[in-house]
């Protein structure tokens, strides 16, 4: 662990925020709002200048590029040894600038589970008012650019699942909807736009881009600063009031472990001096596994031609057409068993072929239904393989490793539900055949093999620095890191259980609450 006494030159501020994703943008806004706090926001990426960031349907164009941390998972699904692409945003705005812009609060049962696991004060009654308040700044409305087939999917899904109400936000939900999205005037409107850009006009907020935080700096049991690497070499910054980690479920535990905070035995094996033995750092990784099913259409009215000259002109001149859509246009939630009290599976409808984790363009005219588990029982981990910061961490989702096999059963149920919905009268006229995995794949073992062969995630990693007691988690319910003063975590890593659905709004809520805790000195 580095000490500030070794530094001769450093920037001094009140708060340092590490990571400018959803949580970092919200916190930078909130902590600098009083005009008195000197706040430093450090981001490894740059400003979001790529034109595909603003184009709602352009997010997949950002995969494997310079605006993303292009991780690959450890091999998943047993003998198939499938590595899964893990894109995380690397720019101001972070993953909020490469996601599908779906705005969702989560289910009340999610937060009940948080409180049952030790996250006191995080129940539905405590968080729902914050979600409602956030919508004064966030743009969130049903996608007005959705393909007509997305409405047909909604009708088909409701005829099978039923329907709980007009919105999936604000309470319990089960059914199907056109997705609420963060789109304004045909362009992405992320927390970078709603929170960080206005805040960057304040003189008391400094944003450093292209700077990677390599280590935390501590003194006498307190976090007092960070070491950063950038184009000009290594530099340091000191925080008089504290450091807040908002680097996400992959980078936040990685930074802690590089700084000597983690499993003592694992750190010592890598030659890293243990500052605090915290065995839950990097553990309990969760994500939503998804099997993208593809149905070939009877017509060519799909988004395979989204980049045609006609559609490009529609977008440039009118901000309309396929490029103005978020691609993942409709969502449905259902229970794999009537014994469950809340949905555990989600279906995501897109009016085009989702091909090879969206790393390849559509090859056929088709529709996709992503069959996903939204209440997974399996847990994985993020771990270091070396002490050197340039080497990416090992990301093991542990998919389908739960001892009772509940995730396998839920995924099979999701795939069968998608097939049933595709056969409904409102949707079936669009479909000529099931392209992937194919109707000839019927046996459960064969079907599960195809699931594993095509498995990906919905890009929602969480849980690696979860809220809990000092013996059961990494942070307290007030988001302070156990065993260190003046160090907080406020991103998806603190979730004891990943929310059922799309967590961007939940991450913003966590950051908003963190700002309140920090302001009160909690």
Automatic annotation (TrEMBL):
The active site is at residues 460, 502. It comes from the Bacteria. Gene3D superfamilies: FAD/NAD(P)-binding domain, Glucose Oxidase, domain 3. Signal peptide: none annotated. GO terms for molecular function: flavin adenine dinucleotide binding; oxidoreductase activity, acting on CH-OH group of donors. Residues 248-262 form the Glucose-methanol-choline oxidoreductase N-terminal domain. Its cofactor is FAD. The keyword Flavoprotein applies. Keywords: FAD, Flavoprotein. FAD binds at residue 213. Pfam families: GMC_oxred_C, GMC_oxred_N. Belongs to the GMC oxidoreductase family. This is Choline dehydrogenase. It comes from Sphingorhabdus profundilacus.
């Amino acid at each position: 662990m580095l000490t500030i006494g070794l530094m001769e030159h450093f920037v001094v501020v009140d708060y340092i925020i590490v990571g400018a994703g959803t949580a970092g943008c919200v916190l930078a806004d909130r902590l600098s709002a009083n005009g008195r706090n000197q706040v430093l926001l450090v981001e490894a990426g740059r400003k979001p200048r790529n034109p595909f960031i603003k184009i709602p349907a352009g997010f997949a164009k950002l995969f494997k590029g310079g605006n993303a941390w292009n991780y690959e998972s450890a091999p998943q699904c047993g003998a198939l040894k499938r590595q899964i692409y893990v894109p995380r945003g690397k720019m101001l705005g972070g993953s909020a600038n490469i996601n599908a812009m779906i705005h969702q609060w989560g289910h009340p049962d999610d937060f009940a589970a948080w409180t049952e696991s030790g996250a006191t004060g995080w129940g539905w009654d405590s968080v729902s008012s914050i979600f409602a308040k956030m919508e004064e700044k966030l743009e969130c409305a049903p996608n007005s650019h959705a393909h007509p087939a997305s409405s047909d999917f909604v009708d088909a899904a409701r005829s099978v699942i039923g329907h709980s109400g007009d919105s999936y936000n604000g309470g319990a939900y089960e059914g199907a909807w056109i997705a609420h999205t963060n789109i304004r005037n045909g362009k992405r409107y992320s927390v970078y736009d709603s929170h960080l850009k206005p805040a960057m006009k304040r003189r008391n907020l400094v944003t450093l881009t292209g700077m990677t935080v390599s280590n935390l700096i501590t003194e006498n049991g307190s976090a007092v600063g960070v070491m950063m690497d950038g184009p000009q070499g290594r530099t340091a910054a000191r925080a008089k009031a504290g450091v807040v980690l908002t680097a996400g479920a992959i980078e936040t535990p990685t930074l802690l472990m590089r700084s000597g905070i983690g499993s003592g035995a694992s750190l010592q094996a890598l030659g890293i001096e243990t500052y605090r033995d915290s065995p839950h750092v990097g553990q309990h990784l969760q994500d939503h596994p998804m099997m993208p099913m593809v149905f070939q259409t009877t017509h060519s009215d799909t988004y395979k031609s989204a980049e045609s000259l006609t559609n490009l002109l529609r977008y440039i001149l009118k901000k309309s057409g396929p490029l103005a859509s978020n691609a993942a246009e409709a969502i449905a939630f259902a229970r794999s068993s009537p014994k469950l009290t809340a949905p555990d599976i989600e279906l995501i409808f897109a009016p085009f072929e989702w091909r090879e984790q969206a790393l390849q363009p559509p090859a056929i005219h088709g529709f996709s239904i992503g069959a996903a588990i939204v209440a997974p029982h399996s847990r994985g981990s993020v771990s270091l393989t070396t002490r050197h910061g340039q080497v990416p961490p090992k990301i093991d989702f542990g998919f389908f490793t739960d001892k009772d096999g509940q995730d396998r059963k839920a995924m099979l149920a999701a795939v069968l539900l998608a097939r049933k919905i595709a056969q409904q009268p409102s949707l079936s006229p669009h479909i000529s055949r099931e392209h992937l995995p194919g109707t000839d794949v019927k046996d459960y073992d064969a079907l599960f093999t195809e699931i594993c062969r095509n498995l990906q995630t919905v890009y929602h990693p969480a849980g690696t620095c979860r809220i809990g007691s000092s013996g059961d988690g990494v942070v307290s319910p007030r988001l302070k890191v156990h065993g260190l003063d003046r160090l907080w975590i406020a991103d998806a890593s603190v979730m004891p259980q990943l929310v059922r659905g799309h967590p961007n709004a939940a991450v913003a809520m966590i950051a908003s609450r963190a700002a309140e805790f920090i302001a009160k000195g909690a």
